[in-house]
Design the sequence.
């Protein structure tokens, strides 16, 4: 399996179709040797495990199970995903801690700053279908 940046705006990762349901295709991405030298591997979920399943919304019905494909992601969408999954929750937690530490006890401020993440991630889960359409990946035959 290979992973490469085909141009400055698109990241391509090869995989195998493991499941087809309705208008979505589930592609299994395997870790490859290129992940070790990637600058974004700390923020990428693909480099942390041996295989990663990705659900891609696709209306093309010509795909078959166990077919080799390329998954294409715009670079800007990757940065947007990192922001909403890691950076914004940290900012939310940090500012909650700063604001509440002025008028609450230290342990209560810390607890509240951690608990503020629960509604945030529940809100992300609630808008999961909207986020799937916003973070649109493509699948291409090899």
Sequence:
């Amino acid at each position: 399996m290979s992973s490469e940046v085909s141009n400055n705006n698109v990241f391509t990762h090869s995989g195998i179709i493991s499941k087809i349901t309705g208008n979505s295709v589930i592609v299994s991405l395997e870790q490859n040797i290129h992940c070790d030298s990637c600058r974004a591997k700390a923020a990428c979920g693909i480099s942390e495990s041996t295989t990663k399943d990705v659900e891609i919304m696709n209306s093309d019905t010509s795909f078959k199970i166990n077919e080799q494909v390329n998954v294409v992601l715009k670079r800007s969408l990757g940065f947007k995903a990192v922001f909403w999954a890691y950076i914004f929750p940290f900012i939310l937690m940090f500012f909650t801690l700063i604001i509440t530490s002025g008028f609450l006890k230290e342990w209560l401020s810390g607890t509240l700053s951690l608990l503020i993440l629960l509604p945030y991630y529940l809100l992300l889960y609630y808008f999961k279908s909207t986020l799937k359409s916003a973070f649109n990946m493509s699948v291409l035959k090899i």
About this structure: The first strand starts at residue 3 and ends at 7. Residues 3-141 form one domain.
